[in-house]
Design brief:
Elements lengths: L3 H31 L6 H26 L3 H5 L6 H5 L10 H16 L1 H5 L12 H30 L4 H15 L6 H39 L2 H29 L7 E3 L5 E3 L1
Antiparallel strand pairs: 1-2
């Protein structure tokens, strides 16, 4: 098993390379949306499939690294303080995907309002059908329900830090320290066993949370038309890349040594701030 420090650095490297890949995906998605014609839906499917594969790759890698350092995955050093403030069980809250969808839908609907009045419609998220809205609403309620279940389980794990065994161990070790005595091997084993048990629970929660994140994306894309899927994936990538960039820039001002002051632009290359 690799050390937590090495594990974190390795995933940080993977994360940075994945951001470049996401930026490249964004360029292709934008280009596809600009060149879209009503009769070329089939041409969009390979691109959508490729982007989804990249999301699957991200969560697959994350799962492998989490197995050896779940605490590092729940408090990732490669994210900015801004991103960290909005984390839910080591990532974005799945229900946020619906806020993203509705926000982009409203923006595009307003932008196309003049054409809609004239009887013309544009194939984007501003043109969701009644049936699609019904399916999205159903999915949103289901997702929120799953979120709540995981949040409740997380609360139980967090509260277990103050369970009888932890309180007793903290008292025993504190007494030994006050008497300037060495902590016995037996106590050390008990401490390790208790913490490991909590890490196992957290790992299970992280896996389920990541599964819910990925399945939410896939279900939204399943409900959407190919071109609507492209617009949703564009909005998701833009939000993720820009918030990461804004957070890094803010951290660099407050703590210059945390970042190398490099960001990933939409062409997938590193640039100095």
């Amino acid at each position: 098993m690799m050390s937590s420090s090495k594990n974190g650095k390795s995933f940080h490297k993977f994360f940075e390379s994945w951001l470049v890949k996401q930026s490249e995906d964004l360029d292709e998605l934008v280009r596809a949306s600009e060149e879209y014609k009503n009769n070329n839906d089939m041409l969009l499917s390979p691109l959508i499939h490729s982007v989804v594969k990249h999301y699957e790759e991200y969560y697959r890698e994350k799962s492998q690294y989490a197995a050896s350092d779940v605490l590092g995955m729940l408090h990732p050093s490669w994210l900015s303080n801004l991103e960290d403030a909005f984390l839910w069980i080591g990532g974005w809250r799945p229900s946020m995907a619906f806020h993203l969808l509705y926000s982009k839908s409203g923006i595009q609907l307003e932008a196309n309002l003049h054409e809609l009045i004239r009887g013309f419609s544009k194939e984007d998220l501003g043109n969701l059908s009644g049936q699609q809205l019904g399916l999205i609403d159903e999915l949103q309620h289901k997702t929120i329900s799953e979120e709540r279940k995981l949040s409740e389980k997380l609360a139980i794990v967090q509260e277990s830090v103050a369970d009888t065994s932890m309180v007793e161990l903290s008292h025993v070790v504190s007494e030994l320290m006050r008497e300037q005595l060495v902590v016995h091997e037996e106590e050390e084993k008990k401490i390790g066993k208790n913490i490991s048990k909590k890490e196992e629970s957290l790992l299970d929660l992280l896996k389920k949370a990541d599964d819910l994140r990925l399945s939410t994306i896939k279900e939204i894309l399943r409900i959407s038309t190919p071109i609507q899927s492209v617009h949703f994936l564009i909005a998701a990538a833009e939000l993720h890349l820009r918030v990461h960039e804004w957070g890094k820039n803010k951290d660099a001002l407050l703590s210059p040594h945390k970042w190398s002051c490099q960001t990933i632009n939409d062409e997938g290359t590193s640039v100095r701030n």
